Amino acid sequence: MRTVSEHPRHAPAHYTALPPCVDISGQSGGIPFPEYTGSGVPLAAHPFAPHKITSRWTLEGRCGACGSDHTLCIYLSYIGGVGTGQDMTLELVCQDCGKYTVETYLD
Ligand SMILES: [Zn+2]
Q1: How far is the CA of 62 from the centre of ligand 1 (A)?
Q2: What angle do CA 74, 20, 102 make, to 5 degrees?
Q3: How many domains does one find in the chain?
Q4: How close is the Cα of 63 to the center of ligand 1, in Å?
Q5: Which of 35, 40, 97, 99 has the fewest Cβ atoms surrounding its Cβ within 10 A?
Q6: pLDDT tens track for 87-105
């Protein structure tokens, strides 16, 4: 699922003041819950390497408004693992049109 908005929905309002990628991971019900936010890194360069997590999703990293791949990942969360469901949320900011795209992947 992909949602476009004018303002960040997951990253904090002051995200541009943060370092490019901050690890804010914690736990969710005793399960490790990787979570990152920041002023943004290209998805392919993200330390969590979401493109390597699963071959079941195609992580395009494209702007939902203009289709540009000139985006930065400003939020990522992931929960799941082998034998369980997986749930990843990405937020991208487009460097061409300035819109925010939230992508949610579930399986
Ligand atoms: Zn765009």
Answers
A1: 8
A2: 5
A3: 1
A4: 5
A5: 97
A6: 889 999 999 999 999 998 8
* 78 Cα: distance to centroid of ligand 1 (angstroms): 24
Whole-model pTM above 0.70?
A: yes
Give the mean pLDDT of 22-49: 88
| Two structure tokens written together for 44 | 């392919």
Give residue 29 CA to ligand 1 midpoint distance, Å: 36
Q: 62 near 73, Cβ under 8 Å?
A: no
The CA 3 to ligand 1 mean position distance, Å, reads 12
Q: Provide mean pLDDT across the span 31-40.
A: 91
* 6 Cα–ligand 1 center, Å: 11
Q: Which domain holds residue 91?
A: 2-106
Report the amino acid identity of residue 38. G
Please name which of 75, 60, 70, 74 lies closest in space to residue 94, comparing C-alpha atoms: 70
